[in-house]
From TrEMBL:
Keywords: Aminotransferase, Cytoplasm, Glutamine amidotransferase, Repeat, Transferase. The active site is at K365. The gene is glmS. It is found in: Cytoplasm. It comes from the Bacteria. Its EC number is 2.6.1.16. Homodimer. The chain holds residues 241 to 610 of 610 of the full protein. Its main location: cytoplasm. This is Glutamine--fructose-6-phosphate aminotransferase [isomerizing]. It catalyses: D-fructose 6-phosphate + L-glutamine = D-glucosamine 6-phosphate + L-glutamate. The keyword Transferase applies. GO terms for molecular function: glutamine-fructose-6-phosphate transaminase (isomerizing) activity. It is an enzyme of class 2 (transferase). It comes from Paenibacillus plantiphilus. Catalyzes the first step in hexosamine metabolism, converting fructose-6P into glucosamine-6P using glutamine as a nitrogen source.
């Protein structure tokens, strides 16, 4: 068994460390040789069909849904097509408005999640074109979708999804750039610049993994608490939701993810002395806004760990208790880096509490029944 885990204590840790490779493999063959264009040969849509897309609906469960939240921002920002996101168990029963000019994107690591598959079938019944982002070739979702983007994360064994999630982010970045080029919403130079930054992500993840010890200490102090908050704005909020889910499912510590600007509409009442708050502050354009939310919780006694961009230590240090810096990248790409410390915090918190990291209670890797 240790051999299968390649020397790691758990599959989850092994899979966290496989992310640089998963990023490279998911990008491989999908970027033109000159590094300036995305080539998604697996997409069978004609230019006319792409131009005809009026709306995108992203449907998934759990962590795959959280990847979809980032995907929404990516597609709206790059391709300027309106995007709705739904958890599959809601979508399938809420009589969603699906038209033939809707592109439905289902996201599923396993490709076998019952609700996601049902959502896919509902979308097809209503005449939508369905694209799947999945990690398993030949899975039900892959077989039934019209277009399939395979994430090359390799088998994911731990119940807590890590490398599948980040590979889904890479798939969304590639898709967003592909649509932007086809729809001419971004020019070639701009696209090439994003691709250059994407190519740096694997090494940047490696540099985060090299600091795992710092995160282990953070996790050990968090593990003494029974409640905490994750806050952020924009894609930082999407990552906050994923960080919170990861921590809940394997450490059993209750946490909530909140849009930082929404705190004062209720949740601030829960902030009391010593409560840990993990704040993501990676989005330049929202920087001042999030910083003022951090100050709000800090003034009420919260113990704040901020996930920041390298280079901002000076400005942020006065307002927080601890900082973890991620390497500089484009704001839209930050989730592919900022989620990694949160995965490690969840892992080490679970470990500190003596839980079964790879097989948390009450959960299955793939939810194939409703
Ligand atoms: C992730 O850590 C969870 N175990 C879970 O939310 C999972 O992402 C969800 O069940 C969806 O699975 P899928 O990607 O295989 O469809």
């Amino acid at each position: 068994v240790t051999a299968e885990k390649a020397g790691f204590d758990h599959f989850m840790l092994k899979e966290i460390y496989e992310q640089p490779k998963a990023y490279r493999d998911t990008m491989m063959g999908r970027i033109s040789e000159d590094g300036r264009r995305v080539a998604l040969k697996e997409i069978g849509m004609t230019l006319e069909e792409i131009r005809g897309i009026r709306k995108v609906q992203i449907v998934a469960c759990g962590t795959a849904f959280h990847a979809g939240l980032v995907g929404k921002t990516v597609i709206e920002d790059l391709a300027r097509i309106p995007v709705e996101t739904d958890v599959a168990s809601e979508y399938r029963y809420r009589s969603p408005i699906i038209t033939p000019d809707t592109l439905v994107i289902v996201v599923s690591q396993s490709g076998e999640t019952a609700d996601t598959l049902a959502a896919l079938r509902e979308a097809k019944r209503n005449g939508a074109r369905v694209m799947a982002i999945t990690n398993v070739v030949g899975s039900s979702v892959a077989r039934e979708a019209d277009d399939v983007i395979i994430t090359q994360a390799g088998p994911e064994i731990a119940v807590a999804s890590t490398k599948a999630y980040t590979s889904q982010l890479i798939a969304f970045y590639l898709l967003g750039l592909y649509l932007a080029e086809k729809l001419e919403t971004r020019d070639e130079k701009w696209i090439a610049n994003v691709l250059t930054s994407m190519n740096q992500l694997p090494e940047q993840v490696e540099s985060i993994l090299d600091q795992a010890n710092v995160l282990k200490q953070v996790a050990e102090s968090i593990s003494k608490h029974s409640n905490l908050f994750f806050i952020g704005r924009g894609v930082d909020f999407a990552v906050a939701q994923e960080g919170s889910l990861k921590l809940k499912e394997i450490s059993y510590i209750h946490s909530e993810a909140y849009a930082a600007g929404e705190l004062k509409h209720g949740t601030l009442a829960l902030i009391e002395d010593g409560i840990p708050v993990i704040a993501l502050i990676t989005q330049e354009q929202l920087y001042e806004k999030t910083l003022s939310n951090i100050k709000e919780v800090k003034a009420r006694g919260a113990h704040v760990l901020a996930v920041i961009n390298a280079g901002h230590e000076g400005e942020v240090s006065k307002s927080v208790d601890e900082m973890f810096a991620i390497p500089r990248t484009l704001p839209l790409l930050a989730p592919a880096l900022s989620v990694v410390p949160l995965q490690l915090i969840a892992y080490y918190a679970s470990l500190a509490l003596g839980h079964d990291v790879d097989k948390p209670r009450n959960l299955a890797k793939s939810v194939t029944v409703e």
